[in-house]
Amino acid sequence: MLSEFKTFIMRGNVVDLAxxxxxxxxxxxxxTSLVNDVLMPPIGRLLGGVxxxxxxxxxxxxxxxxxxxxxAAGAPTLNYGLFLNALINFLIVSxxxxxxxxxxxxxxxxxxxxxxxCAWCATAIPISAKRCPHCTSNLEG
Length: 141
Hints:
By secondary structure, this protein is mainly alpha-helical.
């Protein structure tokens, strides 16, 4: 059983998946830092020095100056500022993945055509066909 597990783990797909997950987690941490430490402070400054993390609604009926104060008091809160940060993180990550996949698709060679159109009936037929199976036209010469 141990040998079988070792064979499973050492398969290319499993190792590639593990590498992808590790790189994805690291990339997610970088994007989170970009949003929280680089993008949101200037946006908060433009909005009058407000930190998006402190955008919340107290469900306890009392007012708290910050989310940390509400948490310390044990008040239930609706944290829409944290949700906005997570949404911006998602948009940046998904856009970066889109750009990456787009570039990879440009670099990969186009797959060879497997069919061609019959000159007589315009039906798709295999590349190696010598006679069209639909209209029986001779395709050589």
